[in-house]
Design a protein that fits this description.
The chain is of the alpha+beta class and 132 residues long. Helix content is 52%, strand content 14%.
Length: 132
């Protein structure tokens, strides 16, 4: 038995200008039909398909991204699920910025300490001037 499925996004619009409109700037009728095989699409492919549809109907890329992120980062999505997405995409939640900052400060202090040790060792090696 074979499985065949398609998904379609359809957009139809008509525009009837009223007095005073410059009709050269408008298309009187638009029809978009986006069809894709749906049997093996994964969630990311569905989102990509819907992104193309939203671009066709005039949404801005910024609004599309904001809408997609609002599915994850809203009050109805549990923090555990949000953190999974953050981990997958290497994002930091606002609540975690203080800890991140402390990590950066500690790391910078450790780097400074190691640089000082290296410089001290280099001075010591130079002071021996090849004499053992």
């Amino acid at each position: 038995m074979t499985y065949d499925a398609t998904v379609q996004f359809k957009f139809d619009s008509t525009f009837t200008p009223s007095y005073g409109w410059d009709t050269d700037d408008y298309i009187p009728e638009e029809h978009y039909l986006i069809t894709a095989p749906a049997a093996d699409l994964n969630a990311k492919q569905y989102f990509k398909l819907f992104e193309k549809f939203m671009l066709c109907v005039g949404m801005s890329p910024c609004s599309i991204r904001s809408g997609a992120m609002s599915l994850v980062f809203n009050d109805y999505t549990g923090e555990e699920e949000q953190r999974k997405v953050c981990k997958e995409y290497e994002l930091t939640m606002d609540e975690d910025l203080d800890n991140k900052f402390k990590e950066w400060v500690n790391r910078d202090e450790e780097v400074k300490r190691l640089q000082e040790e290296i410089e001290t060792a280099r001075k010591f090696a130079d002071s021996a001037n090849g004499v053992a």
